[in-house]
Amino acid sequence: MTPNMGPSLAGIVDDYKQRRSLSDTVLAKRLGMSRMNLNLWRREGLRALPARERLETVAQVTDTPYRMVLDTALAECGYLADPPPGDTVSLDGVVAVSRIVAGVVGRGLSPSESSRLRAAWASAAPRTLDSVAAAALDPEEG
Question: What is the pLDDT of residues 21-40, one digit of tens each?
Fold first, then answer.
């Protein structure tokens, strides 16, 4: 068991590595990253929220629900107090995503946009930050 097992992206990745008995070289290649970056995740944790594509790759490769990978990354970057267990939707997750979306669009969200964002975040359908933002900002998407 590695020291980062638990609520971290490195923990998710290392759990997968252990289950599959993989080397760091093979694991990094499957994740589309260098061994150096993988080791940085382990030593220093996440310094910023990884790109959506990276989170999707981690979810796909490790066979972990995307929602869990995203919430873990949000928690590790300080947007959530703790990641919710399993596939649970947290109110902290909604707040964190709301702040991220507001920062991207450069303004606060209207009450109707916030409501649509909450509904999109709680949706059982697989989603990304982009799809949640689209649903919140475009009533036709939601």
Answer: 999 999 999 999 999 999 99
